[in-house]
Amino acid sequence: MALDTVADYLAAARVLLQDTDSVAYRYLDAELVNALNMGILEGRRLRPDLFFNYLGATLPSYSTGSTGTTVVIDPQYRVAFVYYICGQAQLRDEENTQDARSAVFLNKFVAQLQNLQA
């Protein structure tokens, strides 16, 4: 699965969240899109060089009405943003086991952004 559009990010996150029953999603599209937007803000804080084209400009912000819009993130870092979406979604859950799972996803996001590969 390519990660090009907002819809691609939502679909990839839903697989990891085990939320693929389209009749009754546990996580609303709006919640997951909001997590993507927060991930972009956090990504810029951690790695401003990834958003060089947006220096001094407003970062892209997506909505449920723009799920066909291309997400402008370097391809090698796209999966990290899926992990961020999942981590934010898991934070919402009330089960104790979800806290640990959320931490794993969010830590994986940070690690993939900060660990440079030669």
Question: What report would you give on this structure?
Answer:
The chain has 118 residues and is mostly helical. The protein has one domain. It is built from 4 helices and no strands. Helix 1 packs across helix 2 (29-46) and helix 3 (78-92) runs antiparallel to helix 4. The radius of gyration is 14 Å and the shape is globular. The protein starts with 5 loop residues before the first helix and ends with a helix. The model has no long low-confidence stretch (mean pLDDT 89).
Residue-averaged pLDDT, rounded? 89
Low-confidence stretches: none
Strand fraction band? Answer: under 5%
Gap between N and C termini, in Å?
25 Å
User: Roughly what percent helix?
Assistant: 40-55%
Whole-number count of domains: 1
Shape: globular
- Total of helices: 4
Series of H and E elements: HHHH
Biggest sheet statistics: none
Cα-atom Rg, whole angstroms?
14 Å
SSE-based structural type? mainly alpha
Number of strands: 0
Key descriptive features of the protein:
118 residues; mainly alpha; single chain
Brief overview:
The chain is mainly alpha-helical and 118 residues long.
How do the strands and helices of this protein lay out in sequence?
Elements: H1 6-16, H2 29-46, H3 78-92, H4 96-114
Helix pairs in contact: 1-2, 1-3, 2-3, 3-4
